[in-house]
Specification:
mainly alpha; 270 residues
Length: 270
């Protein structure tokens, strides 16, 4: 019978659940060898009362068997610091700022790049985290530049031939009042929001800054914006000597007609 090999064993072994499915001595031997091999290759975690040396030995053996395992110990001793640095290096944190690089699709100025690298190094970012932040910064810069160009185009369209004169006057007014170089530059180039520009432009006009700038440019001042030209044209064309002159008003009528032609050119941007 299959259980005959157990007949010489003590009662507690003959009835042991672990031997229930063992058919013979050869099967028992095979099971023993396999178990021995498994135990020999396994690691037993140290208990709560284990010494620091035992824990260190267990960690070394575990890392030998699982080299891809990241070890993040607590504590401020030198081995713990080295282990954390090793783990972060595997995750992509560089040792030097110059190791932070950008993919071709992300473009920022050298000045911005160096600032981003320093910030990333101070914060301990990985290379992937650095690139994600750099993309956000590049997108924000591009959006800002796009908004500036749109603002300049809209203002140039609104001011027409008076663009250079009005922007120069607004910038000169701001500079004389000690405003920041960034604001003065934005007023000069027209790359600023319309309400802010109009405020400085109106102040420059009220303080005579517009006339001063015009005089410096050879007395060609008084350039009107298309909106101002349209308002003056409407005023002229409403005068009786323009649309219904009598015989004595013909000279005035011709002068008004020439003025309307000039205003039309200002309005159309010719």
């Amino acid at each position: 019978m299959a259980d005959d090999w157990k007949s010489g064993l003590p009662e507690e072994l003959r009835t042991a659940p672990a031997l229930r499915d063992v058919q013979d001595v050869a099967s028992l031997a095979k099971s023993f060898v396999e178990t021995k091999a498994f135990v020999g290759s396994s690691l037993r975690p140290p208990g709560p009362d284990a010494t620091p040396e035992a824990r260190t030995d267990f960690i070394h053996k575990l890392r030998e068997k699982v080299p891809e395992l990241l070890f993040m110990p607590d504590g401020d001793d030198e081995p713990a610091k080295v282990a954390r640095e090793t783990a972060w290096a595997k995750l992509g944190r560089p040792k030097e700022a110059k190791e932070y690089t950008l993919p071709p699709e992300i473009a920022v100025s050298e000045e911005h790049l160096e600032a981003l690298r320093k910030e990333a190094m101070d914060e301990g970012l990985t290379k992937g985290q650095f690139q994600a932040r750099a993309k956000r910064v590049a997108d924000a810069i591009a959006a800002t530049e796009g908004a500036r160009k749109d603002a300049a185009q809209a203002l140039r369209k609104e001011l027409g031939a008076a663009f250079d004169e009005r922007t120069a006057a607004a910038a000169a007014f701001a500079a004389k009042r000690g405003m920041s170089p960034e604001l003065v530059g934005a007023l000069k180039s027209g790359t600023i929001d319309t309400p802010t520009f109009k405020m400085f432009s109106d102040l420059a006009k009220a303080f005579g800054e517009t006339r001063q700038v015009a005089d410096q440019n050879g007395g060609a001042g008084g350039r009107m914006t298309p909106t101002e030209a349209m308002a003056q044209r409407a005023e002229i064309m409403a005068r009786p000597e323009y649309f219904r002159p009598n015989g004595a008003q013909m000279a005035v009528h011709e002068n008004l007609k020439r003025k309307v032609i000039e205003l039309n050119e200002m309005i159309s941007g010719v």
